[in-house]
Design brief:
This protein has 6 helices and 18 strands. The chain is α+β, with helices and mostly antiparallel strands. The strands form 5 sheets. Strands 10, 11, 12, 13, 14 and 18 form a 6-stranded mixed beta sheet that branches. A 5-stranded mixed beta sheet has the order 2-3-8-4-5. A hairpin with a 2-residue loop joins strand 6 and strand 7. Helix 5 packs parallel to helix 6. The chain is globular. It starts with a strand and ends with a helix. It binds zinc ion.
């Protein structure tokens, strides 16, 4: 399998979920071998590679940091890149956070379909495992097993009467656009005040997140895209976080109670173990 990039540039603008900043983002085709690179045009063009080594904070989103510059909430865009097999991309932003859009990756998927994906004349880097690797943190577990195809299975359990125990699965042959991309981020109403006090979700609203009022139900009036939309969103996030490997994992990934901290810690530990 060769590397891919976008055929045409795409543009997005909107508010950042956590910073509340209005940001315009341009996605530009990039040469083979360059990887996905974020560029803060408002900070003199500081470049931040989308690689595990540049992960800064992982509190409720994945933030990349380099040379004093940050880009928050990279995971939904990176998830769409994983879903469409995009290896190389230049992501120019004029602010500190990727726009949250509707809280899913649906608009990326639609834009990528319209722009087209172009095959490049270089083989995709792959990460092969010779044996299983498991990472645990508290009640969370991420397990990587050798496999011919990349696949993910996710189980979530927030002890919530509304969400219940949910599972979701995805393989690289499934249709990312319809099965994963539309699934929105979510939070519990009782967390909102705490998150706001901790300087998070300044840009959060019912337009970009499912909000759960335990035990009554979802606050949003829009219907769910899937009964297990929450688990599918956690899978969306995991795909995005694991894209920071900078290569395609040839692995079957099983995740119990995934989240940005454990996803990134597990990937970091895996890359150290494999010495890549
Ligand atoms: Zn997310």
């Amino acid at each position: 399998m060769n590397q891919h990039t976008l055929r045409q540039p795409c543009r997005f603008s909107g508010i950042g979920l956590h910073t509340g900043c209005e940001v315009t983002m341009h996605l530009l085709p990039a040469p083979a071998g360059s990887g996905i690179v974020f560029v803060r045009t408002d900070l003199g063009g500081v470049e931040i590679p989308a690689l595990a080594a540049f992960v800064g904070s992982t509190q409720r989103s994945t933030c990349l940091a380099h040379e004093g510059a940050e880009v928050h909430t990279v995971e939904h865009l990176l998830s769409a890149c994983a879903g469409f097999g995009i290896d190389n991309l230049r992501v120019q932003l004029d602010g500190p956070e990727v726009p949250i859009l509707d809280g899913s990756a649906a608009r990326y998927a639609a834009a990528f379909r319209e722009a087209g994906v172009e095959e490049q004349n270089a083989p995709r880097r792959e990460i092969l495992l010779s044996e299983p690797f498991e990472f645990t943190a508290g009640e969370s577990l991420i397990r990587f097993e050798p496999a011919d195809r990349y696949s993910l299975e996710v189980e979530i359990d927030f002890h919530s009467q509304v969400i219940g125990l949910q599972r979701a699965a995805f393989t690289e042959d499934d249709d990312y656009s319809t099965q994963v991309a539309p699934c929105r981020t979510f939070c519990f109403l009782h967390e909102v005040e705490f998150l706001r006090k901790n300087n998070l979700i300044k840009g959060g609203s019912l337009d970009n997140a499912l909000v759960i009022d335990e035990p009554r139900g979802y606050v949003n009036d829009t219907p769910l895209h899937f009964p297990n939309e929450c688990a599918r969103h956690k899978l969306l996030d995991l795909l995005g976080d694991l894209q920071l490997a900078g290569a395609r994992l040839r692995a079957r990934v099983t995740a119990v109670k995934p989240g940005h901290s454990v996803n990134n810690a597990a990937l970091h530990a895996l890359l150290i173990r494999l010495n890549v």
